[in-house]
Amino acid sequence: MKIAIIKNDRLDNAVLVDPVDADGVQLTALEHARQLMPAETLVEMPENACIGWLYDAATGALTAPPEPDQTGLRIEITSIAADAAHTEHLMLKGLQEVTCTVGTVLEAEAELRLKGQLAPFDDSFRMPMRSRDGRERVLLGRMTQGRIAFRVSLPESGVWRVTESGINEAVPAEQRMTFAGLTIYVVEA
User: Hey, what CATH topology would domain 73-187 get?
Assistant: First the structure.
């Protein structure tokens, strides 16, 4: 049976659990998962549930997130570039997946759009970037007339993600933005 691991009121990951403990005692899959991961919020995962589904702690239910609001705020990455010393090793898969070598300094540009149009706001904001192994870095985004610039140095290998839920963690509900996400693979040369 699959067990959903909940973080920040969203289905963050899932594990397959054999409901028999080390002593051969038959347990429910949820009981067994709680023995293995007592500090995590765990629930039985419905067959059709996916990473990113919303978790309601009051009811214990997992539900699909609402479709993105096309009339609201949206961050769209418009370019990603590497510093001159690492340009030849930069690989892009669209503007949502980057592969680069250790030591690369990436510069990304994005736009804040409102109802499809550039939103002419000036501001700075924090953007969390998280690795698969639990590390977290926070980037500073500088926005001028809706155009956002980010810069990040990548001194060690790993997989880093910037997600919609991450950028909206500390944002009031009426200011939340949709974002397709970005994954950065930093590889040894």
Answer: Immunoglobulin-like (2.60.40)
pTM of the complete model: 0.62
Residues 6+ apart with CB under 8 A from 47: none
Q: Where are the domains of the chain?
A: 2-63, 73-187
Q: What distances in angstroms separate CA 36 from CA 26, 95, 105, 170, one per listed residue? A: 15, 37, 39, 31
Strand, helix or coil for residue 150: strand
**For the stretch 10-21, what's the b/e string if a residue is b when 16 or more beta carbons lie within 10 angstroms of its beta carbon?**
bbbeebebeeee
Query: Which tokens hold the place of 39?
Result: 């500090």
Task: Give the model's pLDDT for residue 65.
Answer: 77
- AA letter at 101: T
